[in-house]
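Sequence in, structure out.
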Amino acid sequence: MPRKLTIAIASGKGGTGKTTLSTSLAAILVERGEDVVFLDCDVEEPDGHIFLKPQGIQSQPVNVMIPRIIPEKCNFCGACGDACQFNALAVLADRVMVFPSLCHSCGACYHICPEKAIEEIPREIGTINYGNGQGVKFFEGRLNIGEALSPPVIKVLRSVPNGSRITIIDAPPGTSCPVIEAVRNTDFVVLVTEPTPFGLHDLKLAVEMVRAMNLPFGVVINRADMGDDRVEKYCKSERVDILLKIPFDRRLAEEYSEGSMTLISNPEYAGGLVTLMNDIKKRIEKNGTGDSQR
């Protein structure tokens, strides 16, 4: 039986074409008979639905556990406040103030309280939405407006039971905690960039991140015929493989603005996506998936 594959599409910065590539890759694999799940882990600004247009959407809340003080048991000893690394608890002379938005749900206060004066209660911070779009099993995480912690939503999204052979992840941009949560334990990471000074700067950070996580990766250069050649020179000097170059094409920009699947609707680009996926499969078969734990 063919092994299951999880491919993350990431980028050091936003606006490089990450969602365009991830949604198109998922859709074209389905067209070729694959069973594909798409996870939109860009939970602060999910937009994969614009292109895959999922139907029959259902939702479930994402909760985190936060402390609630039991007044009749609390003696205001301060142990909970001292244990909290995020200043989510302030112990005063006659009460304990809880700041839910600062709480990271680590449970330290709950476990350290000598009086057992803390209980944990759920607080909703986002939702998981799921449906089916163009044959792709579509899942997205959506962080509630005003919430600051996206990793818990991404963690729940990544843990959704998934029996499909191929999982495509649209990771958040950047190199911070949300991205790390999204690409953790994947089989291969595709870093999408553009040939500009900003693209090169953030690509370097992204390369450092995936190397630190010991994840196999390669680069896709979008709008490859614009800008300069410094991205290619960097990849060559760092022995980073460029998997695909997508030229600037006004038709792609126009179709993108209309929410169309910009790459698979153009045969000359669709073939490149198939080649890209076959290349990734060969690399995984040859080199393995690094030290990612499954």
